[in-house]
Design brief:
Its main location: cytoplasm. By secondary structure, this protein is α+β, with helices and mostly antiparallel strands. Helix content is 27%, strand content 31%. The chain has helices at 17-25, 53-67, and strands at 2-10, 41-47, 73-81, 86-88.
């Protein structure tokens, strides 16, 4: 069984209050290496059988129309994950 992973992030011009809260909290945990955080979403779509170009196209369409809000979010990655290998699509 293969999986298609879709990563969605807020557009750069959109405020990210969750990311800001995380970056403010990190120093309280002793983590000081980071100056910014943006929080996004990850979706894993399971596929029975082979991931064909048609299946990838369908995943991209779902990502653009249902998994993200195109007004405030960008689909930044669509990746195929097989048993032992992963390839970016």
């Amino acid at each position: 069984m293969a999986r298609i992973v879709v990563d969605v992030m807020p557009k750069p011009e959109i405020l990210d209050p969750q990311g800001k809260a995380i970056v403010r909290a990190l120093p309280h945990q002793g983590i000081t290496a980071f100056t910014g955080v943006r929080q996004g979403k990850r979706f894993e779509l399971e596929v029975d059988g082979e991931v064909t170009e048609q299946v990838l196209a369908t995943a991209r369409e779902a990502a653009e129309t249902m998994l993200s809000n195109p007004v405030i979010e960008d689909v930044v990655n669509v990746t195929v994950i097989n048993d032992a290998t992963s390839t970016e699509a």
